[in-house]
Structures are given as structure tokens and as C-alpha cells.
């Protein structure tokens, strides 16, 4: 069993509470919210039903985390957390552990051109090459799969930077208003390689204004070599 599978297997509630140590488990004959499909001893749980409807294994996987509903449960004066926010903190720790376990040993260079080590959403996503891809762009699609990952997979490519159709491609994120960032990165990698791209990113150079096309981004990245 991998670390990721072990952590995943320990999730026994949707909201972050520990079902195994709950005082009502035995006294109320509660089967737990996950095991009962969102119907613990007190009846239907709104948080559980919300997670189930959104196809999330627990609240920490939701893009709205921590939402007002979860916060209201946590801060409830009678049935809330002691200390307040305990279940929210538990969700955050579980999510971070899942991401870290998923990313361990995987290539951080994304398929589209973006690099996981320099992504503002890396705390939520294990990376598109991992067992826990949670790319914010991919979540826009019904199947939750990034079109770049799907296309590269169908063509047997490691990434968009290996595709001869890259210069004119408008698939997926490349067709978005800010898609030039990924496309420019992919074009740079196609010319100079992944190691050169990682080297430039490590310099943490501030991007000048006016770069709004893939070609302009390539020129800037090349100036950093």
C-alpha cells in the first residue's frame, strides 16, 4: 500500500471529524457519515450530502473549502468543534498530506507547459502526472480531465511541447485569454528543453508588462537563460 492509499483509507468523515474517536459512535450505534452515505445517527447530514453531490471524498477537496456551511458546523456553540475550527484544520492537513504523497516521485513538469513547483494551486493538486490530479482548469470539465492530458495521452506524447501541432493549437487552456502562459512555456520547452525551463523558473524573475502572446513569453524566457 502506498502512502497516498494509506492516507485515503483513513478518511472516515466528510467534514474532518474523526469518526473512530467520536463519543456517539458506540452509544448511538452510529455507522458514520461515509459508511452510511451521509446519514449518521442524527439523520441526514447537510455537509455529507453536499460532498456526495459534488463527488468529493471529503470537504477538503472542495474548491469552496472552507465554505460557510462547514464553518457554521464547526462554530456551532452546542455541537461545534472544541477548539473551534478543528475539523477545518483536519481537512486542510488531510488534503496537504494527500497532495504531498501524490507528488512524491512524480515529474513536476505539467503536460500543458505549466510547472507544478511554480503553480499557485499546487497545495490543492498532486499534478497532472500523479494519482491525484486536481488541476483548477480540469475541474471546469464534466469528466474532470484536462483536455491537454487527454490529447497528449491519445497521441502518446509526454506533453504539448512534443506535439508538432503546438504552434497553431487552440485546444483547452491554449484557447483561453491567459492561455498564452502555458502555450509560451510549452513552446520554450520545445526549443530548449524542460531542464532549461526549470532553470529559468528557479530564478523567480519578475515578468515585465506587455507579455500577452506565447511568442513574447518565449522571448522573455530566452532572455533569462
Tell me what the structure shows.
- The chain is an all-alpha fold.
- Helices cover 38% and strands 0% of the residues.
- The chain is built from 9 helices and no strands.
- The protein has helices spanning 3-9, 24-27, 46-53, 68-75, 86-103, 147-155, 180-192, 194-202, 214-223.
- Helix 7 crosses helix 9 (214-223).
- The protein is elongated and about 65 Å long.
- The model has no long low-confidence stretch (mean pLDDT 92).
In a nutshell, what does this entry contain?
This protein has 225 residues and is mostly helical. The protein is built from 9 helices and no strands.
Comma- or semicolon-separated keywords:
single chain; about 220 residues; mainly alpha; 9 helices; about 40% helix; about 0% strand
Would you tell me the overall average pLDDT? 92
Extract low-pLDDT stretches.
none
What is the H/E string?
HHHHHHHHH
What percentage of amino acids are in beta strands? under 5%
Share of residues in helices: 25-40%
The value of Rg in angstroms is 21 Å
Overall form? elongated
Query: Could you give the count of β-strands?
Result: 0
Structural class: mainly alpha
**How many strands, what sense, and barrel or not for the largest sheet?**
none
Number of helices, where a helix is a run of at least 4 consecutive DSSP H or I residues: 9
CA-CA gap between termini = 42 Å
Amino acid at each position: 500500500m502506498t502512502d497516498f492509499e494509506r492516507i485515503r483509507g483513513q478518511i472516515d468523515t466528510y467534514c474532518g471529524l474523526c469518526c473512530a474517536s467520536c463519543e456517539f459512535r458506540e452509544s448511538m450505534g452510529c455507522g458514520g457519515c461515509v459508511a452510511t452515505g451521509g446519514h449518521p445517527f442524527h439523520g441526514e447530514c447537510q455537509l455529507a450530502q453536499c460532498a456526495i453531490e459534488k463527488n468529493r471524498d471529503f470537504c477538503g477537496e472542495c474548491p469552496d473549502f472552507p465554505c460557510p456551511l462547514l464553518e457554521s458546523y464547526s462554530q456551532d456553540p452546542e455541537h461545534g468543534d472544541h477548539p473551534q475550527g478543528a475539523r477545518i484544520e483536519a481537512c486542510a492537513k488531510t488534503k496537504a498530506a494527500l497532495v504531498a504523497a501524490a507528488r512524491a516521485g512524480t515529474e513536476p513538469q505539467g503536460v500543458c507547459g505549466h510547472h507544478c513547483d511554480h503553480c499557485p494551486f499546487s497545495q490543492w493538486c498532486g499534478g497532472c502526472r500523479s494519482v491525484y490530479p486536481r488541476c483548477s482548469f480540469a475541474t471546469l470539465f464534466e469528466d474532470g480531465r484536462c483536455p491537454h492530458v487527454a490529447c497528449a495521452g491519445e497521441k502518446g506524447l509526454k506533453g504539448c511541447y512534443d506535439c508538432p501541432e503546438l504552434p497553431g493549437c487552440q485546444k483547452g487552456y491554449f484557447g483561453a485569454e491567459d492561455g498564452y502562459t502555458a502555450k509560451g512555456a510549452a513552446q520554450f520547452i520545445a526549443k530548449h528543453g524542460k531542464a532549461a525551463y526549470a532553470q529559468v523558473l528557479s530564478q523567480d524573475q519578475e515578468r515585465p508588462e506587455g507579455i500577452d502572446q506565447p511568442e513574447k513569453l518565449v522571448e522573455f524566457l530566452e532572455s533569462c537563460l
